[in-house]
Design goal:
The complex is a heterodimer of chains A (324) and B (287).
Chain A lengths: L1 H12 L7 E12 L2 E12 L3 E5 L6 H9 L6 E6 L9 H4 L2 E4 L11 H10 L15 H7 L15 H13 L5 E5 L7 H16 L4 E5 L3 H7 L2 E6 L2 E6 L1 H7 L4 E7 L2 E7 L2 H12 L3 E7 L3 H29 L1
Parallel strand pairs in A: 3-7, 3-8, 5-6, 6-7
Antiparallel strand pairs in A: 1-2, 1-4, 8-9, 10-11, 10-12
Helix pairs in contact in A: 9-11
Chain B lengths: L4 H22 L3 H21 L11 H31 L2 H7 L3 H31 L8 H28 L7 H13 L11 H7 L3 H13 L15 H28 L3 H15 L1
Helix pairs in contact in B: 1-5, 2-3, 2-5, 3-5, 3-6, 3-9, 4-5, 6-9, 6-10, 9-10
Chain lengths: 324, 287
């Protein structure tokens, strides 16, 4: 009895650690005039989960993320971020979010260290037993790989370095939910790799829920526990990269050479095909290569399938109108 | 301390330090330094050449009479134009959106801008006043009441103009439109008795000028630093302190009532995509 009461008091002070739904989006709708940008988007995310939102330009990725950030009003549906409606979220709620914005030329006269210390100071009153806010500035600068540039002015940094500052600003308050809109635009491969390590660290060690949009399918595959594909204002597929590629049957590609001649064959049963190949030709087979469908293949197939489906529906609607 | 007050106090402290940091950054920024020095030098040179001319009907130097007026004008210009231009520039470059993404960040941001603009205004006032003391005779610098009057006029002037400047800054869609408020303000300065006694102007222009804070700011700073006899060239032969307080106070009340509403409306519309859209537009103009 006493234990239950104690647990309740703890819940009131701060949400329980461990498992828990941090993002809960149901039937989200966004309409501009007569144009439905979002037409019933639903998904959830658990504490510590990394979600990647993929989709063609104009699919509504940024709109979705801005509604969740509380920067944009929705037309319909239910949204809960850390248990609160972003449309009415207060500053205490805001302190538990991280938003990585796109930079342009803001704060160009500020030194990196000075800026992070300044923005971090706003989070200090929201420090809790479990989460110490803000992030120690020097540790943060090291975590994003800016130690040698800490004393430089933001305006003197290269594009990739500026982007690291944006990421650092996004996480300076040790967010429980982090939104990243195309975080690695302008990163070189090394910076990209370091950023991926940072995201893993945030999700695994700090239990941060991360929702990111990207056009880099490799990145989505490496980072995300779950991939959501948004097209035409709906989520047309969701799952891990593996689950997605299993959902849609794309042939694997088998390449080999025999007697100096190269061969390519597409098959949905690659293992059986290769077994057959060896049974027939044995030692003659060389340079064998089996390429499973990549996330890119899966993504393209899903989007194409969706678009042709929409074309079919449009054609049917047209026929109905023509017949009627 | 109540749990909801501590974050606001922290944001106020952060805002103060932000204001100080940005004020300091101005001293190593060529454009800002130019903004301090250029108008000061031009005004001092103009007043220097006016020092031989007399205020009509008196034998008081027109240059010495203009110096206090320019202090009032500096306050009005800082409050109206600097605030508006900072808001539009920082809305376009995404600074405001960052403040919005930070808990109590907008509150801290506003505090910082009040500190920054007040600090810049005081620097500009000092840059005019200190050389002016050595260049002109006849100013009332030895009485405590002169300095006290100057202090309340400058303070009330800032409170009267900064919120109105914030309203302008929120309504202008981008920094290229600043001219829309610059031109009318220049016109008002010309007709507000800053560079020449307002009593020399036609009655309807005098009436118009008295609606706006620039005239009252100039009158207030003149009343602080000029000998009482100089009130003879003012409207009603008086420094009209009560009317000055009422006029500037009225603008302050109006501004403080309007600014929060307009600022909140502007802030609500800020999002990553609105900043991105403005960036696209601005870049199209560059190329």
């Amino acid at each position: 009895m006493a234990v239950t009461a104690g647990a309740d008091a703890l819940t009131a002070a701060e949400p329980p650690a461990g498992e828990g739904v941090t993002l809960d989006v149901r039937d989200l709708r966004m309409r501009y005039g007569t144009n439905d940008v979002l037409d019933g988007v639903s998904f959830t995310a658990q504490r510590g989960e990394v979600l990647a939102l993929l989709g063609p330009n104009g699919a509504g990725k940024t709109t979705t993320i801005e509604i969740l950030e509380g920067f944009r009003m929705r037309s319909g549906g239910q949204v809960a971020v850390l248990g609160a409606d972003p449309a009415t979220g207060d500053e205490r709620w805001r302190a538990r979010l991280g938003v990585v914005l796109q930079s342009w030329r803001d704060h160009s006269r500020w030194q990196v260290r000075e800026l992070l210390a300044h923005l971090g100071s706003f989070y200090a009153p929201y420090s809790t037993e479990r989460i110490r806010r803000p992030w120690d500035v020097d540790e943060l600068i090291e975590a994003v790989g800016l130690t040698v540039h800490a004393g430089k002015k933001v305006g003197q940094l290269s594009g990739g370095q500026r982007r690291r500052v944006d990421v650092a600003i996004g996480i300076v308050g040790r967010p429980e939910v982090l939104f990243l809109d195309e975080p690695t635009a302008g990163f070189d491969p090394a910076a990209r790799r370091e950023f991926h390590d940072l995201v893993h660290r945030l999700a695994d060690l700090d239990d941060t829920t991360i929702l990111l949009t990207t056009h880099d399918l490799d990145e989505a595959e490496k980072l995300a526990d779950r991939i959501l594909i948004l097209a035409g204002g709906r989520i047309i597929a969701s799952g891990s990269a593996d689950e997605l590629s299993r959902r849609i049957s794309i042939d694997a590609e088998v390449r080999w050479s025999r007697d100096g001649q190269r061969f390519v064959h597409s098959t949905s049963t690659a293992t059986a095909f290769v077994r057959e190949l060896f049974a027939q030709h044995g030692e003659d087979i060389a340079d064998l290569e089996v390429r499973r469908a990549s996330l890119e293949d899966t993504y393209m197939a899903l989007v194409r399938e969706f678009e042709s489906g929409r074309a079919d529906r449009a054609a049917r609607a047209f026929e109905e109108v023509a017949a009627g | 301390m109540s749990p909801s007050v501590r974050p606001l106090l922290q944001a106020a402290r952060s805002g103060l330090s932000r204001g100080r940091i940005e004020l300091r950054q101005g001293f190593t920024h060529a454009e800002t330094l130019w903004g301090y020095l250029f108008p000061t030098v031009v005004l001092l040179v103009v007043m220097f050449f006016l020092r031989g001319a007399k205020v009509p009907g008196t034998d008081f130097s027109l240059g010495a009479q203009t110096l206090p007026s320019t202090l009032g004008m500096t306050v009005a210009f800082g409050g109206l134009v600097s605030v508006a231009s900072i808001l539009t520039v920082e809305r376009e470059d995404g600074t405001l959106l960052r403040a919005k993404a930070t808990p109590n960040g907008m509150f801290g941001y506003l505090i910082s801008k009040i500190i920054l603009v007040a600090g810049m205004t005081m620097i500009s006032v000092a840059l005019l006043l200190v050389p002016g003391i050595f260049l002109f005779d006849g100013l009332m610098l030895n009485s405590l009441s002169a300095w006290l009057t100057l202090a309340w006029v400058l303070l009330l002037g800032m409170v009267a103009t900064m919120p109105i400047g914030a309203v302008f800054g929120s309504l202008l869609s981008n920094p290229r439109n600043l001219g829309l408020i610059m031109l009318p303000i220049m016109g008002l300065i010309a007709t507000s008795g800053i560079f020449y006694p307002i009593t020399a102007l036609p009655g309807w222009l005098q009436g118009l000028a008295q609606v706006f804070p620039i005239y009252w700011l100039g009158l207030g700073t003149r009343s602080a630093l000029l000998p009482d006899a100089m009130a003879a060239v003012e409207i009603g032969d008086s420094w009209r302190h009560l009317e000055t307080v009422l006029a500037l106070g009225g603008w302050a009340v109006l501004g403080l009532a309007l600014a929060p509403v307009v600022l909140r409306r502007m802030a609500r519309r800020e999002s990553g995509s609105s900043v991105a859209a403005r960036r696209e537009k601005a870049l199209q103009r560059v190329t």
